[in-house]
Write a structure and sequence with these properties.
mainly alpha, two-stranded antiparallel sheet, 19 helices, globular
Length: 388
């Protein structure tokens, strides 16, 4: 399958995103012809692509972190089979390495996934911008909504005097060449800064050793040089796309490294220092508030003083019980005129006596003792009736 045939659907999607973004900017009041709206449409293309790639970005961070954390184990496996070149040893080393990847759920290719997915978009945008002149002249077929008139507007749009389709090696304008050089430098610097964030700040000391760490250090310095050399072949629009992509990556990685650093890295140490400083500031600011809140903690102790009120309520509820006890002796002579009334006073007399020794105020038996005269009148009246 031809590579350019593979890029055709991606070119179509890129063309529609640029055209739709331009329509949005013109709806907001910007000029519909050649101008800044088409430049901002390329920036909008970056934003749309990077938002779609956010889940893959977090997978890349997780995979890169996993690769960094298993570096000591990988080095142990490599040291184990160091100097052994026979096929059996090589096969065993490969098998143990893959088992490590499977155990920790990481993959060396997962960290490259966002870059690999952006590469077709990069080449598709390159093809679209490179075809603008041919489309506007009618020598090439339109790409999606980019017709001859639209292609002419995009080609005529400028950034600081340089057209979006200008290439350093193909233009005679000194202004365009200066703009291209500035964009190449910006692209190289942002690429270097992005790689340095990952290798120097978000890697533990154990991961800074070994062949993979050496490869990353080489890429740290080689990629900017590669972009600087190849940038002279890119149109201005592609340089804008790549520079804005690097700026997005810098901001995204800064947020991720600051909030979710790799364990044991310099970024994690700095995060702990920031948390300790914030905790110290809160302690100094809220020191007085904590002292004011201490009486609030002691309020339940003062609330326990309500218990005497509950005892008083029980005392208030006790008086009806003596009334029942008094009515029982009055009815007793009528129910059993024989020797039955005498056992009842003995039972009521014995039980209150035992209970009043423990809690005299709470038991109803104590009150018949205090009201001895009322309790005796029914008994004496019963005796008088019997005498009569």
């Amino acid at each position: 399958m031809d590579f350019f045939a593979f890029l055709w659907p991606i070119e179509w999607v890129v063309a529609w995103i640029i055209y739709g973004s331009h329509w949005l900017f013109t709806t907001l009041g910007m000029s519909s012809g050649p101008g800044t709206a088409w430049v901002l449409s390329i920036v909008a293309l970056v934003i749309v692509i990077r938002i779609v790639l956010i889940p893959l970005f977090f997978k890349q961070i997780k995979a890169s972190r996993g690769m960094q954390m298993i570096q000591p184990e990988l080095q142990a496996v490599q040291k184990k089979y160091k100097g052994k070149t026979d096929p059996a040893s090589r096969e065993n080393m490969t098998r143990e390495t893959m088992e490590l990847y499977r155990k920790h759920g990481t993959n060396p290719f997962a960290s490259c996934m966002p870059i690999l997915l952006q590469s077709p978009i990069f080449f598709a945008l390159f093809r679209v911008l490179n075809s603008l002149k041919q489309i506007s002249e009618g020598t090439a077929d339109p790409i999606g909504p980019i017709t001859r008139s639209v292609a002419g507007d995009i080609e005529s749009s400028t950034l600081f005097g340089a057209q979006l389709s200008d290439v350093f090696l193909q233009t005679d304008s000194m202004t365009s060449r200066i703009v291209v050089i500035v964009l190449i430098v910006a692209m190289s610097v942002t690429t270097f800064t992005t790689q340095r964030q990952l290798t120097m700040k978000n890697m533990p000391p154990s991961a800074l050793e070994g062949p993979m760490a050496q490869t990353q250090k080489m890429m740290l310095y080689m990629l900017p040089i590669v972009f600087a050399i190849s940038g002279v072949n890119f149109p201005v629009g592609v340089l804008i796309y790549w520079t804005v992509t690097n700026l997005w990556s810098m901001g995204q990685q800064y947020y991720t490294i600051r909030r979710m650093p790799t364990p044991g890295s310099v970024a994690e140490k700095q995060m702990k220092e920031r948390q300790a400083a914030k905790a110290a500031k809160r302690a100094t600011k809220n020191g007085g508030v904590i002292e004011d809140e201490t009486p609030v903690v002691e309020e339940p102790k003062s609330g326990q003083r309500v218990q005497p009120k509950r005892k008083s309520r029980q005392k208030g509820a006790l008086p009806p019980r003596p009334a029942i006890a008094q009515s029982a002796p009055q009815d007793a002579p009528d129910a059993a005129p024989g020797n039955q009334p005498s056992p009842k006073p003995k039972q009521t007399g014995t039980t209150p006596g035992k209970q009043t020794g423990a809690t005299p105020g709470k038991q109803p038996g104590s009150k018949p003792k205090q009201s001895g005269t009322p309790g005796s009148t029914p008994a004496s009246s019963g005796k008088r009736k019997q005498k009569k």
